[in-house]
Design goal:
306 residues, mainly alpha, two-stranded antiparallel ribbon, 10 helices, 61% helix
């Protein structure tokens, strides 16, 4: 509570700082980054934010799995993580029937109230405004009526309707799907982005808001989108330089007895270029001599030719 008005806000900043400092300490072998990692980790635990601690553990697991096992193990880890989260959210309402009451500090009741409010206006939503006032009529506990949905995806759906909520969810999922299927990824940003995606399940901090957590989150996701577009542009340029050539096979050309062209002349063979051949190897351009003597010789040669 010493730096922000909410310990969860401080915890989200410390989560990102813990992962970033840990990656820098591993890559640079500097003790200062290790000290920063310890400070951020201790501060994160002191805030008591379980959602941010879970995000830090998941992000750290993603980084370690990718550096140790490669992208194949990373895909399996992300798939297992997605299945686990969806299963928990689906089975959460049915746990009360077995005597297991999981409230997540009142968040389950807030999520239920938010879904009831969304059911009233599912298409256009309630528009911009205070989310706590939109759902307080559906909250039974008076102590929770001043809180928002505590779920960024539900909050976006509450404001903009089903199409707005799905668009926000697709934006988040598209970023990770593109990076997981790519040949090269920037794993620290992917890990921090995955942590923020999980943290949004338990907090109201969305992108596109003028808060410090939203700004950091938007920078992370914006970098992931820009990195994907850069990789796609680079791949297209490399693919264009190695485009296959279509050429006719001279051995199949000929004329029929009536003078018409035979069908063999229209056959084409797909020839794959050899990337190691001299034709496809980029040759350095000769440097242009710009000294005074070379310009004089060039001028005399041009006048002589004229």
């Amino acid at each position: 509570m010493s730096l922000t008005n909410n310990p969860n806000t401080l915890a989200q900043i410390l989560f990102a700082g813990t992962i970033a400092s840990f990656v820098l300490s591993v890559r640079t072998d500097r003790r200062a980054y290790g000290v920063f990692t310890g400070i951020c980790a201790v501060g994160l635990l002191a805030t008591g934010s379980r959602a941010s601690v879970l995000s830090a553990v998941v992000a750290l697991a993603i980084y370690i799995v990718y550096t140790r096992g490669g992208q194949t193990y990373l895909r399996a880890t992300l798939g297992l993580l997605a299945i686990t989260i969806v299963s928990v959210l689906i089975l959460l309402p049915s746990l009360n029937q077995f005597g297991i009451h999981v409230t997540f500090t009142g968040r389950v009741q807030l999520w239920t109230a938010t879904m009831h409010a969304i059911a009233e206006r599912p298409i256009v939503g309630y528009g911009l405004g205070d989310a706590s006032e939109m759902i307080n009529t559906f909250v039974d506990d008076p102590a929770l009526q001043e809180f928002g949905p505590h779920n960024s995806y539900l909050r976006m759906t509450l404001h903009l309707g089903i199409f707005g909520g799905l668009s926000y969810l697709v934006l988040t999922g598209w970023v990770f799907l593109r990076h997981v299927t790519a040949k090269r990824i920037d794993v620290p940003f992917v890990a921090i982005g995955a942590g923020f995606a999980i943290n949004q399940l338990f907090e109201d901090n969305m992108m596109f808001e003028p808060t410090i957590v939203s700004i950091v989150m938007t920078v992370v996701f914006g970098y992931l989108v820009a990195d994907h577009l850069h990789l796609r542009r680079t791949y297209r340029q490399e693919h264009r330089n190695r485009r296959p050539i279509m050429r006719c096979d001279d051995s199949d050309t000929g004329l029929n007895t009536n003078g018409s062209m035979s069908s063999r002349s229209s056959s084409r063979t797909l020839v794959r270029p050899d990337p190691t051949s001299a034709r496809y190897v980029a040759k350095p351009k000769p440097k242009r001599r710009t000294n005074r003597r070379s310009r004089r010789r060039y001028g005399r040669r041009v006048r002589r030719e004229r």
